Amino acid sequence: MHFPSSVAVAFTATFTLASCDAVPADEPLVEQRDESQAGRPEPKPVGGLYGHLAFEESDEPLADAGRYRDTGRVVQLRPDAARAFRAMQTAARQAGMELVPISGYRTRDYQEGLFSRAIRRYGSAESAARWVAPPGYSEHHTGLAVDIGALESPETDVETTFEDTPAFAWLKENAHRFGFEISFPKDNPQGVSYEPWHWRYTRLADSR
């Protein structure tokens, strides 16, 4: 990964968690089945909460990375990441795959809404954090993370079954060419859920 040298990562989780941090606010919470995460861009240099790393909410400009299916909701990323995603989307289309942006930049307030819904569903903040990152602890705050779906398979949006789509197979082989890598692979050292749909842009330092 290529992050600014000032970035510091601190993580103090002592137990395995799962997360459905990727679920859009206007979609129902989805219980993920697999458990497993890697490093993340631009974390705050502080400890974790319920196993999630802390992230500053980016104050950088944002750019349009596309719409989430037919909802009309605009997915936004920082400009470098948005351009790279659109280039990757074009390359995938030429290969017969249509990538869909599901979720990008999120404010703390937006994440608070997701987390509050999860608390109501699961009964406590600790239990909710197994499925949704608390506000201030979502990689989406950076504007460099994007959840990706396959146009022809909406049922796999923010589901581990996304790994069975041709779109995911294409991403595994080609995403690195555009500066993206999966954030939460299987059996990752941080012990947060496996999320084949969640990718982060890693070339910000190279573009400065």
Q: Would you mind describing this structure in some detail?
A:
The protein has 208 residues and is an alpha+beta fold. The protein is built from 4 helices and 6 strands. The strands form 2 sheets. It has a 4-stranded antiparallel beta sheet. The chain is globular and about 45 Å long. The model is unreliable at 1-46 (pLDDT under 50).
SSE blueprint:
Layout: E1 63-67, E2 74-77, H1 79-94, E3 99-103, H2 108-122, H3 125-128, E4 145-150, H4 166-174, E5 180-184, E6 195-201
Short description:
The chain is α+β, with helices and mostly antiparallel strands and 208 residues long.
Number of helices: 4
Share of helix, binned? 10-25%
Number of strands: 6
Structural class: alpha+beta
- The best one-word shape is globular
Please summarize the sheet with the most strands.
Answer: 4 strands, antiparallel
Instruction: Please compute the radius of gyration using only Cα atoms.
Output: 16 Å
Spatial separation of the terminal alpha carbons: 15 Å
